[in-house]
Design brief:
The protein is of the alpha+beta class and about 260 residues long. About 20% of the residues lie in helices and about 25% in strands. A hairpin with a 2-residue loop joins strand 3 and strand 4. The longest helix has 13 residues. The protein starts with 8 loop residues before the first helix and ends in a 7-residue tail after the last strand.
Length: about 260
């Protein structure tokens, strides 16, 4: 059987289009993954300004113009079908988690493709740092924090973070490795005590799945591209469609495209 890591992006998107549903961490090694959020033209400028004011959790990799369903990051693909699972919000409330959003699509929707920390996981593995959620076969844990993002127009909300436990002896390596990928969240925003981020229980993530934290490991937190969805929940636009957390768009861009020497 072909390993998930060796599947090319177009093949991965075709598999999801055909109905396969699973988190994408570890898929298509060497290729960048992206968070997705589609929002009406009316609110798109506010979201773009929100992202510019909060580049750590919201680094924009690309934007599809109103009604467009494909672009350079998914050549020949369709943003309505090529993500394994989506989340649909109406007035900030989650109303559906479909695998195909064709029925929700509107010609005024602008789609933002936002950097994802899955992009630097291969570099962490190459540096000898194991990825707990991959090893444990679960989705990455993600948490709302007590850090408010800078608001923009109608958009406001908290920063969301993803967490990976790292051996204490390798934390400095994890910081060094990920700092070279600023377009996909870069270095961690916090290391250690989750209470300082307002996280009461690592065993109860707001998105994704809890992971076991081995002895001698420290929780390390990176800004997360689910942050715009948290802003949607707080700001309550009439319609917004995102990826289901952890179920990303696998793009044709290479991880190395976002590596800073």
């Amino acid at each position: 059987m072909t390993s998930r890591a060796s599947i090319l992006p177009a093949e991965a998107r075709a598999a999801f289009r055909a109905g396969l549903v699973e988190p994408t961490s570890g898929w298509s090694r060497g290729y960048a993954q992206a968070n997705v959020l589609s929002i009406s033209r009316e609110h798109a400028f506010d979201l773009m300004l929100f992202a510019q004011r909060n580049p750590k959790p919201c680094p924009i990799l690309g934007i599809l113009e109103p009604g467009h369903t494909t672009g350079p990051l998914l050549a020949g693909g369709d943003i309505r079908t090529d993500v394994p699972k989506y989340t649909v919000y109406r007035n900030g409330e989650k109303v559906d988690e479909p695998t195909d959003i064709t029925g929700y699509w509107q010609d005024d929707l602008v789609t933002f493709l936002i950097g994802c920390s899955f992009t630097f996981e291969a570099a962490l593995q190459d540096g000898g740092i194991r990825i707990a959620h991959i090893d444990q076969g679960v989705n990455v844990p993600m948490y709302r924090t007590n850090r408010a993002c800078d608001p923009a127009g109608s958009m406001s909300g908290p920063m969301v973070v993803s967490m990976r436990p790292v051996p204490a002896s390798q934390v400095a390596d994890a910081v060094r490795i990920t700092s070279r990928y600023p377009a996909v969240h870069g270095a961690p925003v916090h290391v250690g005590n989750p209470g300082e981020l307002g996280i009461a229980d690592l065993g109860r993530p707001d998105f994704g799945d809890a992971v076991e934290i081995p002895a001698g490991h420290i929780p390390v937190f990176w800004a997360c591209g689910v942050t715009p969805q948290a802003a949607v929940m707080q700001s309550r636009p009439p319609l917004a469609i995102g990826h289901a957390p952890g179920h990303m768009l696998i793009t044709d861009a290479r991880d190395s495209d976002y590596l800073v020497p």
